[in-house]
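User: Hey, quick favor. My workstation is busy. Could you predict this chain's structure for me?
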Amino acid sequence: MPNCLQLGKQRSMVNISIFRVQQLLLLLILGFEGIRGEYGDLVGNWLVDYGQAECKLQEKDTQQLELRIYNVQLVDPSQDYNFLIYSKEEARAFASLTVAKNEFDAEGSWRGLVEVTGLRFGYSILNVDLNVQGATETETETYPQPLRIAVVRSRVVDERVTTYVSAALALLMFLNLGTVLDLHRIAGIVCRPVGPVVGVVSRFVIMPALGFGLGSALWSGEWTLQLALFYTALAPSGGLANVCTVFCKGNLNLSVATTTINSLLALAFLPIWILVLGRLLYEDDDLAVPFGQLSGGAAALVACVAVGVILRLCLPKTTRFIFRFLKPLSVVLSLCLVGLTVGLNWFVFEEFTWQVSSNSFPWPYSLLIGQLHTSQVLVAAVSLPVIGYLSTYLLSKLLCRSATDALTLSIETSVLNMTMPIVLLQSSQLEQPQLDLILVVPIASSLLSLLLFVVFYVVRRCLGWNVRQDEDAFDHKQLMAEQEHGQEGPVYQRP
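Assistant: No problem, here it is.
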């Protein structure tokens, strides 16, 4: 029994020692870092007048803010205090100024200039901290209404130049593909447009609903990121999907026909979706549809395809060169288009982070640099093309489409457009630098959709599945043989 009592006393002494050590550590922490109190506890409800609702400046520019701190009511006049004015995100904007007690007038007011320098595009906030020196520690409180700082990226190349160059590359790609179209098969597709209907339903019903659902699940409350993913899902696929169809021996005629039809119908479906989701759910009245660019792009697409078909009919000898170098030329044009878009927007990828989202900034500060999460963007960029491919393939098989047509329509849906979502976002009148930050969503989604296709193509080649399955499938060697021997090829029979 005595041993038990002695053991109990020893445990009690150990617990008391641990508690005293914890108290000592707490006092040391408070002594070095100070005590952060609630606003209004130290000198009353002091106020800050920034003179403006937002500080917006470009990278490397400096702006002077006229700032006023007033209504400072010190309970003990002998206490020393100072105000620290600083930028929270120092990597984006720099500002630092200390206002001492002797700089305030008798009424507890101070007015002066604060220099803010933009370092890198993005958002920051200008905080004002009050530090009151006590007997043993420094108490600190922060003004609850900081000033928003928006640093706008310096433009190196005019956006219109990049848009026009990208459009020219895409149209050249369609001109190249137009030379290999078969008018007999195109007529059969138009007479029985089951395939294009599947493509329209997948593009303008399944994909927008999928984009909206993924955006709401991943970025709840951040409607600009949701809008970027929604536009990425809604935009009709471009020439990249047609090039992918060539490599996978799909139905190129169906692919080009579906791309053309979707581009024309986008003039009707885009306003409907933007009216329903863009304004009602995203609560933004500034969203608009760039009818001029969309209609001009659709007309140019049809014209380039038509010119390609005319070249094949009227100048067969000239088009033999295109037949011979169809795949290499398509790859070069695709790489130029992707490389141009990614290269000019590479700055966005430098803002990725794997950190968990911080709740210390309410909207609209939640898009601060450092909160554009790689994991969320990757989940959206992978899920959108994969689910789109599987749903379109299932819908095609339910409507008794052939394996070639199902493959073609699935590629048409899953290979995402990179340029049109950027144009749609630019027309939505989003402010900078918010627009630059969310461009990573369509760019990353399009790049990953291409990467997934490359993996898919390599697997098909390795397993021996990349073969022509029926007469509708594209066969580059057969096309070359027909041209070399001057044959017209089999006449398409309507099923």
